[in-house]
Design brief:
The chain is α+β, with helices and mostly antiparallel strands and 173 residues long. The chain is built from 6 helices and 9 strands.
Length: 173
Amino acid sequence: PRMDGLELLRCLRDQIPVIFVTARQRHFDEVLGLELGAEDYITKPFEFDVLLARIRTVLRRVRHPLQAATTGALQVGDLTIDPASYEVMCAAQAIHLPPREFRLLYTLAVKAGAVVTTEQLIEQVWGPTFAGEPQILYVHIRSLREKLESDPQHPQRILTVRGVGYKLALQGS
């Protein structure tokens, strides 16, 4: 009662996946909730079996990178990504990433040096049923660059391939 859902999301999004269940049906509220890090946004009224299906989808998506990782930590230049512990080291410095940013970085690292299309990133990180706008990806890429690049305005690590997607450079900045 002391804070609204968006404020609560800011507190929880780095710790657990969040699904909004709300009576607010304005398009703006849904976009804002998703862009701030919610995994899904469901408006009332809804069918209970639909809610359960969406919860299962989010759980599959959140667990996917960890289950796929059987070889341990990935090393890309001076960047180390450990899916078992959800830890990232950049130039020997620990970097804290929210779960979605971690999954995004991990997806790029698995294919380091190769271009990963915008569509592939959205499907891997948000899931195949994601119906939002691709701008959410751009927001997360910008946030990753701010945390990993020495000069986020001139990235050397997470590169944009215009009209296609992104790639993680084999040698970081």
